Amino acid sequence: MSGEVVPYRPVIDAVVIDCADPARLAQFWQALLGGELHTQPDGVTELTGGRIRLDFARVPETKQTKNRLHLDLHVPPESKDQAIAHALHLGATPAPDIYDGTLWQTLRDPEGNEFCLIWGGTG
């Protein structure tokens, strides 16, 4: 692998979140992060306007276990309490079973997908 010639490097186009109700979940994330929502003809709802696009796609199955991938959202240390309160007000729930420490707060969105508000790193 180390000597392999790569003709191009892919770039991340979007992070896709599987969910039962794309419009509802996208509204939660829009309220949390800002941005604009766009519903595509295939039913995927896109949240644009941030560093990366989030796509919300309907799937028939419900979430069963901890995410294999999650979003880390940096907040300034002096704003962490307000950021947590805001996320909870929007419908997030605490996830102390995942992490219960002092460097970040693990939360779940309204469909149970874990994400972290972090203030202990460089952001």
TrEMBL record:
Domain VOC: 11-120
CDD domains cross-referenced by the UniProt entry: VOC (cd06587)
PROSITE patterns: VOC
Coiled-coil zones: none
Gene3D superfamilies: 2,3-Dihydroxybiphenyl 1,2-Dioxygenase, domain 1 (3.10.180.10)
Listed Pfam families: Glyoxalase_6 (PF18029)
The name this protein goes by in its record: VOC family protein
Species this chain originates from: Kribbella turkmenica
